Amino acid sequence: MIGELARLPAESTQQAVGYPSLFLLVVLGSLVPVVPTGAVVSSAAVVAVHQSSPFSLLFSFGVAALAAFLGDLALYWLGRRGVRSKNGSRWLERIHDHAAPERLDQARTKLTDHGVAMLVLSRLVPAGRIPVMLACLLARWPLRRFARGAAPAALAWAGTYQLIGLLGGSLFREPWEGVVAAVLLTVAIAVAPGVWRRVRR
Known about the structure:
Number of helices: 10
Number of strands: 0
Radius of gyration: 18 Å
Structural class: mainly alpha
Helix content: over 70%
Oligomer: single chain
């Protein structure tokens, strides 16, 4: 068995380890909003660009989108349990702690005006997912209604960050160079809104 594994091509080994790792990291990042899941997806796309399989990018996109969708559903379900509970829950507290009061007020207003479409947009805006999710919880959206918005939101999010990785993988000959470029770009995108708000103040 070990000998057979040793004879596997490096690319097959990368895929066997990479797809489950990508799935777990994105799910974890959805539940614990401190994991840089955008950088993870972009890095996976860079690696996929340099593989010979024509379906590598498609597989990494599908895994990332599915993981984001299931992670969002799990976090929302845990948050709903906290809303219904008399004492709340640590998951609801965690969601609330990651939503600035002014962002939450904006999210509640926009959610009332735009409904499910706001979920899609919130996934693409850095630090926008949690305030909108909390607004949905406070509005007591059922899980099914939340899922209708979370599905296209996960697809749009995975596609956006995969495009970043595709760009990084295409510009550099070595995969590690593309990964570094993709990570730096996703980090810059994530911190830019916070820096801009501080500059305006």
